Amino acid sequence: MTTEHRIELREIGSTGLTVFPLALGCMGMSGMYGAADDNESIATIHAALDYGVTLLDTGDFYGTGHNEMLIGRALKGHQDKALLSVKFGAMRSPDGGWIGTDARPSAVKNFAAYSLTRLGVDHIDIYRPARLDPQVPIEDTIGAIAELIKAGYVRYIGLSEVGVDTIRRAQAVHPISDLQIEYSLISRSPETEIFPVLEELGIGVTAYGVLSRGLLSGSTPSAQGDFRAYLPRFREENLAQNQRFVEELKQIAASKGVSPSQLAIAWVLAKGRNIIPLIGARKRTQLEESLKAVEVELSSEELTRIEAAIPASAIAGTRYDEHQMKMLDSER
């Protein structure tokens, strides 16, 4: 897979750091959607880098370290091609359960030490807490990452799923490169309050869930271990209603000669040059289809038509379950 035409890069916030307009989200390569093949995952990472993708996104808790080790294997001999965005702070138990968040300064530095080793690199390009730790002031967490920057272990500080007040408090301690947050045709709540503040402060967006975990491409949970089975939008009582809007997307996509997933990704790309969508491909075929979205141009009239046909307010079910929604600082 090679780049056949020039792709205009995008800047992450006000950092001066430019990246390919799509980033590769690697979470699905470590079992979150069911079993994945390591060799195919590594081949997918290589194909993305060969195409020109520059930013890889992971979390130290994806597969309890498996994802970072996988990326470390993939990057041997390729470290100069990739920028790494790493989330930390989610705590796991031996049985794979989730047991809270830890963003204390000592924990921040401990997590970073292990990530550097697993990834096989001497620095992390963007380091971010995966969730706000309600027991730790965000100033303390950001201050610890700032110390890692001074020591040369981290280049930039990012945030994930936090709200306006937390963003402002974090920015007051150290410049923030970007906020990672779910954003798609059917998850548009950041537009109201969060995005205006990010634009005011010169903070970029790395948008995950741009296909709403496959819902917008027609994918549904099937494999054992697919966490989507627990998400409200995929529950039987909501799925039928939501699939009606997926059909609307399919029709619009067909009229434009593209796939629904390409149209959904292109929509996110068109919503602002400060937005870098994360595509969660774990196979080369998925990657190739998603990358073609950068070639899709949408007029303002087409954007209006798409948004009218798939209104976010009509989608049944929240993006996470009730417990997780309450934990999201971005939803408060």
Automatic annotation (TrEMBL):
Keyword presence, Lipid biosynthesis: no
- UniProt keyword annotations, A-Z: Oxidoreductase
Q: Which InterPro entries match?
A: Aldo-Keto_reductase, NAD(P)_OxRdtase_dom_sf, NADP_OxRdtase_dom
> Carries keyword Zinc?
no
Q: A Gene Ontology molecular-function term?
A: oxidoreductase activity
Instruction: Give the matching PANTHER family.
Output: AFLATOXIN B1 ALDEHYDE REDUCTASE, ALDO-KETO REDUCTASE YAKC [NADP(+)]
Q: What is this protein called?
A: Aldo/keto reductase
